[in-house]
Write a structure and sequence with these properties.
Helix content is 43%, strand content 17%. It has helices at 14-23, 45-55, 74-93, 118-121, 123-143, 159-168, 180-185, 191-196, 225-235, 246-259, and strands at residues 2-6, 28-32, 58-62, 98-102, 108-110, 115-117, 147-151, 175-179, 201-206, 238-241. Helix 3 (74-93) runs parallel beside helix 5 (123-143) and helix 5 (123-143) packs parallel to helix 6 (159-168). It is globular and about 50 Å long. The N and C termini lie close together (9 Å).
């Protein structure tokens, strides 16, 4: 198991994050492409390699959250696929082996008595579009020796999203990120997906949920932190301690080291 941290918005640049990662004796930083500095145009693969070597830490990548690989609009969908291809190539050249992304549920219409998700109402179109996008991306990622891990974003319990995951599971390259805080936020309704595909779990986002605050400091809420760490350790996967400030991160790392016997 390797412990890492997210890119923190309080820092102006990527290098400050790597410096904190080294100071906390963590293994990696998850480069978040939602931030302007964390994309191929702003920070080339050569700079990522230099930073990795200078600070002695590894990197993973979090793809932009607005990506919609099942979009009903062909030009939008292809644009998002192309951005993923660019990110895969960028990561591969920087010797980064894992990219994390969300499965976008699209939009919903609010009726007097219920929500109507457009992708659920037009599910076969959504599933076909999604499968076509992932078929292309899984093939390209495999060629570049990169994993694409789909993260639960409080939507894995939606029936049409579960159907999408079951469809994507037909690809041998299908892998998952378990965000255990998001799972707790849904009342642990997302856990059954990971129970159904235990061999596909390759990455973890670890934060707490106290009933109100998401991305809360570890050991302050509902998440069985030690159980999740033990699972990650048994599988030898990376764990992003995904709290959002340096203060919460330092406190969470200290709590892990006080409460969980990390193996060398």
């Amino acid at each position: 198991m390797k412990l890492g941290m997210p890119t923190l918005v309080e820092f102006a640049g990527l290098e400050d994050n790597l410096e904190l990662c080294r100071r906390l004796d963590l293994d990696f930083v998850e480069v978040n492409m939602n931030l302007p500095v964390c994309n191929p145009e702003a920070t080339g693969h050569g700079e990522l390699l230099r930073l990795k070597r200078q600070y002695g830490v590894d990197l993973t990548v979090h793809l932009p959250e607005e990506l919609d690989l099942g979009s009903i609009h062909g030009s939008i969908r292809q644009g998002h696929v192309q951005r993923c291809r660019e990110a895969i190539d960028w990561a591969s050249r920087a010797e980064i082996g894992l990219l994390n992304l969300h499965l976008n549920p699209g939009i919903y219409f609010t009726l007097p008595d219920r929500k109507v998700w457009i992708y659920e109402a037009h599910q076969e179109t959504f599933l076909a579009n999604l499968a076509a996008s992932y078929s292309e991306l899984y093939s390209y990622a495999k060629e570049k020796s990169v994993l694409l891990c789909i993260e639960n974003a409080c939507n894995f319990h939606l029936p049409f999203i579960r159907n999408a995951l079951d469809r994507l599971a037909a690809f041998e390259e299908f892998t998952l990120t378990w965000d255990v805080g998001h799972d707790a936020k849904t009342g642990f309704a997302e856990g059954p997906v990971f129970a159904a595909y235990p061999e596909r779990l390759k990455h973890m986002h670890l934060h707490d949920f106290d009933g109100k605050q998401d991305h809360a400091r570890l050991y302050t809420g509902l998440v069985p932190v030690n159980d999740r760490l033990a699972l990650a350790e048994s599988k030898g996967i990376r764990v992003v301690v995904e709290v959002k400030t340096s203060q919460a991160l330092e406190a969470s790392i200290h709590s892990i080291r006080m409460n969980f016997p990390l193996k060398e």
